[in-house]
Every structure is written in C-alpha cells, then in structure tokens.
Amino acid sequence: MSQPLTILLAGGGTGGHLYPGIAIAEAVRGMVPDARIVFLCSNREIDQVILKPTGFESIQQPIVPPRPSNLLRFFPSLFETREVVRRALREHKPAAVIGLGGFAAGVAVKMAARAGIYTLLLNPDVVPGRANIYLLPHVQAICCQFAASEGAIRPIYRSKVRVTGCPIRRDIRELPPRQEAAGRLGIDPLLSTLVITGASQGAKTVNEAALAVFASLTMNGWQVLHLSGRDHADCVRAGYRDLAIPAVVVDFTPAMADVWAVADLAISRSGASSCAELTACGVPSLLMPYPFHKDLHQRKNAAVLAAAGAAIVIDDERDAVRNSEKLRVAIEPLLHDADRRAAMSAGARGIAKPDAADTIARLVIDAVQEIG
C-alpha cells in the first residue's frame, strides 16, 4: 500500500466494547507497524479512561443510546454524530471500519458501508444486540466469539459469520509471574485469591452478594481482590472493614493481566470480554449474568462456559440475601476443592480462542489488500 493503512474502530461506552477493539488495534500494529488506528468512541468518561493510556487516537461521538428516556437528546445527537463521522471518513480515508458493538458503532459502520468502505462487525455475545442486528446487512463479515451465535443470526446473514473468538489484549494472553502481579496489586502471593468483578463499571448486586456471603463464610487460606467499580468503591471498602478477611478493593484497573495472573477463582458477570478473558486465562468462575437486559445475553454467554465445565451459573435475583445464599452454596465447596477448580480451569482453556485478535486483524488486512 502506498499510503499507511488506516482503520477506524467504532464503539464504546463500556470496556466490553473497547477492550476487544484495543486488542485488534494492537494486532494490526503488530502486522502493519505504520498502520494508523483511530477510535470513534462515545463521550462517556470511561472511554477516555480506557483509551488514553493506549496512545491510540480517538474521536468522541456525541451519540447517546436511543432509549425512551433519551429520545429528546437522541435525535440531535444522531445528527451531530453523522457530521463527526462524515468528517472522520473524509479526513482519515480509512481502508476499513470495524464496529465494536453498541450505540457508538451504528452511525460509523453504516456510513462507511454506504461509502464503499470495507466494514466488519464484532459480535462477541452469543446473541447479537440491537445495534448489531441493525448493522448485519451493512457489513462484509461478522466475527463471533461463540459458534452458538450462528443460530441467533438470521439465515440470510450466516454466510458472513466467522467464529473467531473475542479479541483479548496481548498482555492478558501472556500473563506476568504471579509474584510480580501480586506485588503490584498489593496482595499476598502465597494466599489463594478470589477475584470479584462486575467488569469495568462494577456491578452493585454482585458487590452486595459478595459482601453478604463473606459474613458467614470461612475463608482460611484465601484473600479477596475486589474490583468494585468507581461508583461503588466507598461502600465496598466500608463493607470489608467489618469483615475479618484479607481484602484489597480496587475501583478500576486497566491492568487485568495482573488480576488474572493471581486469580484462583472468580465471581464475575458474564459479559463477552469477561468470558473471553476467563477462558483464555483458565480461571474457574462463578458467573452472575446481568439480569436487566431484555435478551438476557449474558445468561446465554454464561451457559456456554457452564456447558464446558468452566463455570457455575448463579442467576442474579437482584436481592442481596437470596443471591448470597445461592453464592455460598456454590462457592464453599470450591474453596476447598483444588481438583475441581483444576478441572474447571481445563474446561475454560478448552473453549478459549486466545488468538482472536490476530485472526480478525489478518482477516481485515487481507480483505483490504484484496480490494485495493
């Protein structure tokens, strides 16, 4: 190519959309070192928290989710976003636009497709979300984490499906030594570690269930590393002050490689990125799928891991007492059964696709070279 390869990645609003995009961007740079990568993200604070440390260029889109409560804001934000995207396409002249899912992907992918630019959609959940369903007709390829996604996509579009896995960052594929990671996190490398995470923004019901269960659980030989989310950190820290167990509470960290390097067991949501990281790192897990989505896609993600023997699924009932009762029944035997945790770890690795980022990067580069 005479001009540097330029790729736009559209999406944001959560780490679940951005982290796979960062993994793809890293993989593209590994194959084409002078490639120019630009993220078309949302204007939520979390996007800049995640993107700034990477050094990748980003352009904020004013788009907001098209919810009933947002409709008065949505239509003006849609018109403004179209202008932002039109300018980005004109100035950057991308060879490809990759949709990362969610409300911040739709405008860019559709406008790029209309302009004849190669478009690809990342669909890491079993069930496509509304934005992805809307974009299926406009893309050349749909990269899915799970083979089960084929059955959730209309037959007319299934020829576009590529089961690639969900991209994870290179540092998570190559975990640091446990002792080094523990030192950076401020935990004891010799104790077994239970990681609790509700993903990048935290999860109130997961936090509450965990704190409730520790009140009646013996944790001999174990410590807790709790990723609480920024909005919940003060409450979670206060909760641990009344519990006689060693615990470190982190509101947010981009250094998930350190977290998974020390994890012997996890309590987690089952978003697509969390599932990809848990399986790639072989972490046995207790999954509490997010219960508020209409399509319950996290429950379907969790079912794939459970079927592989990698996880136990606990339905989040939104009530801390009921959740803690179910959580205690599931977790107590696991804390004292290293053989079962090892079997779950093997089950997780058995369905992992840690090279997904490289697979997708190669797919995009080859497609662009064939077109150009």
Describe this structure in words.
The protein is an alpha/beta fold and 372 residues long. It folds into two domains: 6-168 and 354-371, Rossmann fold (3-Layer(aba) Sandwich), CATH 3.40.50; 176-350, Glycogen Phosphorylase B (Rossmann fold, 3-Layer(aba) Sandwich). Helices cover 45% and strands 16% of the residues. The strands form two sheets. A seven-stranded parallel beta sheet has the order 3-2-1-4-5-6-7, with helices on both faces. It has a six-stranded parallel beta sheet with strand order 10-9-8-11-12-13, sandwiched between helices.
Q: Helix-strand pattern, N to C?
A: EHEHEHEHEHEEHHEHEHEHEHEHEHHH
Low-confidence stretches: none
- How would you sum up the major sheet? 7 strands, parallel
Strand content: 15-25%
How far apart are the termini? 8 Å
**Inertia-based shape:** globular
- The side-by-side strand order for the widest beta sheet comes to 3-2-1-4-5-6-7
Name of the top-level CATH class of the largest domain: Alpha Beta
The CATH architecture classification of the largest domain is: 3-Layer(aba) Sandwich
Q: What value does the average pLDDT take?
A: 93
CATH level 3 topology of the largest domain: Rossmann fold
Radius of gyration over C-alpha positions, nearest whole angstrom: 21 Å
| Number of strand segments | 13
Q: Specify the number of helices.
A: 15
Q: Topology, pairings included?
A:
Blueprint: E1 6-10, H1 15-31, E2 36-41, H2 45-51, E3 57-60, H3 71-92, E4 96-99, H4 106-114, E5 118-123, H5 130-135, E6 141-144, E7 161-163, H6 170-173, H7 178-185, E8 192-197, H8 204-214, E9 222-227, H9 233-241, E10 247-250, H10 256-262, E11 265-268, H11 272-281, E12 285-287, H12 297-307, E13 311-313, H13 320-335, H14 338-350, H15 356-371
Parallel strand pairs: 1-2, 1-4, 2-3, 4-5, 5-6, 6-7, 8-9, 8-11, 9-10, 11-12, 12-13
Helix pairs in contact: 1-2, 1-15, 3-4, 7-10, 8-13, 11-14
